[in-house]
Amino acid sequence: MSRTLTVPVQVRGRGHRVRGRGRARRWLLVAGFLGPALVVLGALVVYPIVYTVLRSFFDRSGSSFVGWQNYVTMFTNDTTFTAIRNNLMWVVVAPVTVTIIGLIFAVLIDKLGWKTVFRLIVFMPMAISMLAAGVIFRGMFQESPQLGVVNAAIVSVQSLFGEQASYPGAKPREGTGIEADGGIVASSETVPAGGTQDFALTGIRQSALPEGAVDARAAEGPSGTEIAGTVFLDVIRGGGGVQGEIEAGKKGLEGVRVDAVDADGAIRGYATTGAGGAYTIEGLAAGESYRIALPAANFDAGAQGVSWLSASFINIVVILAYIWIWAGFAMVMIASGLSAMDRSLQEAARTDGAGEWQIFTRITAPLLAPVLVVVFVTLIINVLKIFDLVYVIPPGVSKPAANVIAVEMWTVSFGGGNNQGLGSALAILLLILVLPSMIVNVRRFKEERGR
């Protein structure tokens, strides 16, 4: 009887010991895998957050406790308000624009036979660092047309379709019967029909003369209803010559508009100088006198570039750079959702006579809504933390106008402010702004995983 009682006790105890060793082995295995990750997570995420929260309640040196003073300073600082305003503009403009462009590209490219190549081209900017993209866009939008490709294109179009000033800086030679008034060069006295009026100009660089400029020549004698003359550069390279006289070595100014203005200020005729600077204004009233004038448009600086990097346009340029980089990301994410979509609903709608716009708005877009939300929220988190482009693209005078919270935080802490207490408060503000979007994204991922 004692035997039958002792055997179960020994087996049960041995089983408990085996199960206990199994649990301990599993806990050791879990700790072996999760331990390093938890250590890294604590060192790189938890500790910095806790330290930043505590540091935000101390002064710039970290030695004196100042309570909420850093937060009060932050919200009473004009630069902080500018940064918050710009961040709000980023959140409103950039994610919406990138998502819409990505959706359009994904839907349209899906119908192309060479869609892989096109997707590769659109996605390629993602392979470029934000720093390099900032340098590229800063160079593209330089104000000088000789440096910035955007302004070079604008100036080229203006030159083709607008009046291009040819001789900036021109001024009349003194003592030759012509004068300048508000940029207009005109004859001092009226000229009767059938008379002549020459314009001897100075102040024009030889490099500003068009290629193939020829020596000035005297205009042919006008009839009784014409006024003629020559517009020329009254300078001989190397010196010499008689001032106000048409001579060999003095270049004629081709392409200059010349107006005949009556006593009431109305333009009664005009002409454009040809090779050698000669002009003839026809169709004038015989016996009438006119003042001959060269409009100021002949001597303006001409088509110039737009100051894209000024405070007025700098935010547009930086956001364009961001859109250029991230449109490929949105396109690829939405295209992946499009490829997983059940196409039978679209085919059924086409069979029922629905148009492509109806299919897109009532079937495609609603089915892509989960992907669109993930892309949109991810972009919101990204733009709230934007730093590289805002730091690289704006020149010094435009940096305050383009300021965002991340750049303000870096500037206050390390970029000359050396106030890490205030910088920590700005970091906490940025964390608070980012947290709601991060929570939404995590919930979306959990919902997708649960389906």
Q: What is the third-level CATH name, the topology of the largest domain?
A: MetI-like fold
What is the helical fraction, as a range of percent? 40-55%
Instruction: Give, in order, the helices and strands.
Output: HHHHHHEEEEEEEEEEHHHHHHH
Low-confidence stretches: 1-11
The appropriate CATH architecture of the largest domain is Orthogonal Bundle
What general outline do the C-alpha atoms trace?
A: elongated
Gyration radius, in Å: 38 Å
* Overall CATH class of the largest domain: Mainly Alpha
CATH superfamily of the largest domain: MetI-like
Task: Tally the beta strands.
Answer: 10
- Output mean pLDDT: 84
Residue share in β-strands:
5-15%
Sheet with the most strands? Answer: 6 strands, antiparallel
| Cα separation of the termini | 59 Å
Contiguous helical run count: 13
What is the count of distinct domains?
2
Query: Which class do the helix and strand fractions yield?
Result: alpha+beta
Outline the secondary-structure elements:
Elements: H1 2-55, H2 69-75, H3 78-109, H4 115-123, H5 130-140, H6 149-161, E1 171-172, E2 178-181, E3 184-187, E4 191-192, E5 199-202, E6 227-233, E7 257-261, E8 267-272, E9 278-281, E10 289-294, H7 314-339, H8 344-351, H9 356-367, H10 369-384, H11 388-392, H12 405-413, H13 420-450
Parallel strand pairs: 5-6
Antiparallel strand pairs: 1-5, 2-3, 3-10, 4-10, 6-9, 7-8, 7-10
